[in-house]
Specification:
This protein has helices spanning 48-56, 98-103, 113-122, 130-141, 212-236, and strands spanning 40-45, 66-70, 75-80, 88-93, 145-155, 161-171, 177-182, 189-201, 204-210, 241-244. It has 245 residues and is an alpha+beta fold.
Length: 245
C-alpha cells in the first residue's frame, strides 16, 4: 500500500482558530453539461403585463422593450429585451368566461332540446328570473314544433325549371330569455338577452343560442378593458413603446 504525503497549511479564522479542512478521496463527480439559457414566456389574463411591470419595471430597459396590442385576438404582449433571442415575453389575453363557452352563446354550438333542458336546470343560478328558468326547462323537455312545408317543382319542355321549397316552423319556445353571466374570465356578471334558434329537419331538431346584445357588449367591453390596461401601463412604464397590430 503506497502512501501519499500532503503538506497542508491550515489557515486560521479571525479569532485565531484553525479552519476545518475536509479531505475527500476518490473521483470527483462529473460536471454537468452546460445548457443554453431558456426563453421566458408567460401567459395570463389581460392584466398580466401590467402586473409584471408593476413589480419589475426598475430592472428593465424600457427603451429596448415593447408592447403589441391585438384587439382582434384581445391580447397585450409585453416583450423585454426585444433584440435578445432569449428575451422575456408576457402575454395577457382577455378570455371568454367558462360560462359563456359552456352555454355556447353565438358560437354555433348545437343542442338537442332535452340536453339543453338538463343544462338549463343545472345552471339555474345564471338566469335572471328563476321562474323563467323553470318554464324553459319544462318547455324544452316537452319540445313541440309544427312544421309546414311547401314544395313546388316543375320542368318545361323548353328546359325552364321551377324548384321552390319553403318551411315554416311554429314551436312552443319563448322568443327570448335573460342570463346574468360574466362575458370574460375574471370579470363581473353582465345581463344579456338570449334567443333560441331552432333548426328542424324532419325528426331531427337542433337548437342554438344567439344574442345580438352580447356581441355589442363584448365589442364595447373588450375595447374599454384594453384601453384601460394601456393607460395604466403608460403610468408605470412611460418609455415602453406601445404598438397596435
Amino acid at each position: 500500500m503506497s502512501e501519499n504525503k500532503i503538506n497542508l497549511v491550515v489557515p486560521k479564522d479571525y479569532n485565531g482558530r484553525p479552519i476545518e479542512v475536509v479531505l475527500r478521496e476518490g473521483k470527483a463527480p462529473a460536471a454537468l453539461d452546460p445548457r443554453e439559457p431558456e426563453r421566458v414566456v408567460f401567459e395570463g389574463t389581460i392584466d398580466a403585463p401590467l402586473r409584471w411591470l408593476e413589480k419589475r419595471v426598475e430592472f428593465i430597459n424600457q427603451k429596448s422593450s415593447n408592447i403589441t396590442v391585438s384587439r382582434n385576438n384581445m391580447s397585450l404582449l409585453l416583450t423585454i429585451d426585444e433584440t435578445n433571442y432569449y428575451r422575456t415575453q408576457i402575454n395577457g389575453v382577455l378570455c371568454f368566461s367558462k360560462e359563456m363557452l359552456e352555454f355556447g352563446v353565438n358560437t354555433g354550438k348545437e343542442w338537442e332540446p332535452i340536453k339543453l333542458s338538463q343544462f338549463f336546470k343545472m345552471h339555474r343560478a345564471f338566469f335572471k328570473d328563476k321562474a323563467e328558468n323553470m318554464t324553459l326547462v319544462s318547455t324544452l323537455k316537452n319540445f313541440k314544433a309544427k312544421v309546414n312545408q311547401d314544395i313546388e317543382r316543375s320542368k318545361e319542355e323548353n328546359g325552364s325549371k321551377v324548384d321552390n321549397y319553403s318551411q315554416v316552423v311554429d314551436s312552443n319556445l319563448p322568443k327570448s330569455f335573460k342570463l346574468n353571466i360574466p362575458l370574460f374570465k375574471g370579470f363581473a356578471c353582465e345581463e344579456i338577452e338570449v334567443e333560441i334558434y331552432a333548426d328542424v329537419d324532419g325528426r331531427d331538431v337542433s337548437l342554438s343560442l344567439v344574442s345580438a346584445g352580447a356581441n355589442e357588449a363584448i365589442e364595447e367591453y373588450k375595447n374599454n378593458v384594453i384601453d384601460g390596461q394601456i393607460e395604466a401601463i403608460k403610468g408605470v412604464a412611460p418609455d415602453i413603446v406601445i404598438i397596435e397590430v
